[in-house]
Amino acid sequence: MSFRTLGLDDRILQAIKEAGYTEPTPIQAAAVPEILARHDLIGIAQTGPGKTAAFTLPLLTLMASAPPQPGRKKTRALVLAPTRELVV
Questions:
Q1: CA 63 from chain center: how many Å?
Q2: Could you give the CA distance from residue 21 to residue 68 in angstroms, rounded to a whole number?
């Protein structure tokens, strides 16, 4: 499976390629389509398999597909991090 098959924005795919990634990890392959379909999701995996990307890549794709509207400012995303180390 490639990142292209997940339905991510072309700009996101280009950034993934430039970063040297070639295929999604299992949690990314499972999570990205669900998030792009706007389903709620909880992902559990050990440290290092790409959970952060599994959530942020589709979030960025959704945000790119619906640019902010002029006028009243609205929250577009809320990101919670469970520890200070993950925030850094």
A1: 10
A2: 29
* SS3 annotation, the chain: CCHHHHCCCHHHHHHHHHCCCCCCCHHHHHHHHHHHCCCCCCCCCCCCCCHHHHHHHHHHHHHHHCCCCCCCCCCCCCCCCCCHHHHC
Grouped pLDDT means (10 residues each) for the chain, 88 residues: 94 96 95 93 84 92 86 78 64
Q: What integer pLDDT is reported at residue 88 of this predicted model?
A: 65
Distance of CA 78 to the CA centre of its chain: 13
**What's the pLDDT at 15?**
96
Contact assessment for residue 58 and residue 38, using Cβ atoms and an 8 Å cutoff = no
**Location of structure tokens 């993934």:** 16
